[in-house]
Amino acid sequence: MRGIIPLVLFGLLVLGMAFGLTRDPSVIPSEMVDRPMPAFTLPSLYEDTPDITEAVFDGEISLLNVFGSWCSACVTEHPKLVEIGESTDIQLVGIDWRDTREAGQAWLRRYDNPYDAVIFDEASVLAIDLGVTGAPETFLVDTQGRIRFKHVGVITDESWAEEFLPRIAQIKAEGA
Fold first, then answer.
1. Sheet of 137-141: strands edge to edge?
2. Do β-strands 62-67 and 137-141 pair in parallel, antiparallel, or remain unpaired?
3. Is residue 13 part of a domain?
4. Cα-flanking dihedrals φ and ψ of residue 48, to 5°?
5. 11 in a domain, yes or no?
6. Which domain holds residue 146?
7. What is the pTM of this model?
C-alpha cells in the first residue's frame, strides 16, 4: 500500500502537467468578456478635456487599449493602432495606466495619438475593474458598451486579422 501512494501522486502530477502543456500561456481568460463596461468617471489625459465615463462607448464599436509611457511593448504595438485609427471606423479609446500626465502626453506627441479619447488612470481604478494584468491589453467593446473580447499583448497584423476583424464583423452583423 505504501508503494502505491507515490505512484498515484506521480500519476496525478503527470496528468496535471500534460493538461498544462495543452494550454496556450498567452491566453488569459477575462471575467469581463460578455459583461458591460464597469461604470467609471475618470479624468482625460488632457486637463482641458472633460472627464470620461463609460458612456464614451455608447453607439460605437471601440477598442479600449491599455498603454503607458513606461511600456516598451506599447511602442512596438503603437504603429498598428495608428494604422487602425486611420483605416477603420472603429473608435479607439486609450487608458494611460500607472503613468504621469506629462509622460503620457509626451509619449503620444512622440509616437502620434491615434485615440479618440484617452482616459488617465494613474491609480489603476478602471484597470483593476477590468482585470488588467499588464500593458498592452486591448478590449473590444460593442455598441452597447459590452466587452466582447480581450487581447493580451501586442496587436499584430495577424492578431488583428484573425482575432479582431471576425469579431468586429460579427458585431456589425448583429447591429444590421
1. 117-121, 91-97, 62-67, 137-141, 147-152
2. antiparallel
3. no
4. -85, 5
5. no
6. 30-175
7. 0.84
In Å, how far from its chain's centre is CA 114?
A: 15
Cell of residue 166, nine digits: 471576425
Q: Are 104 and 118 in contact (CB under 8 A)?
A: yes
Q: What is the pLDDT of residues 68-120, one digit of tens each?
A: 999 999 999 999 999 999 999 999 999 999 999 999 999 999 999 999 999 99
Is beta strand 117-121 parallel, antiparallel or unpaired with respect to 137-141?
unpaired
* H-run or E-run covering 20: helix 4-21
- Domain count of the chain? 1
Q: Establish if 90 belongs to a structural domain.
A: yes
The SS3 of residue 27 is coil
CA angle 74, 78, 82 (to 5 degrees): 160
pLDDT tens across 20-70, in order? 555 545 445 557 799 999 999 999 999 999 999 999 999 999 999 999 999
The answer to whether 130 and 39 have CB atoms below 8 angstroms apart is no
**Residue whose C-alpha is closest to residue 55's, from 172, 141, 173:** 141
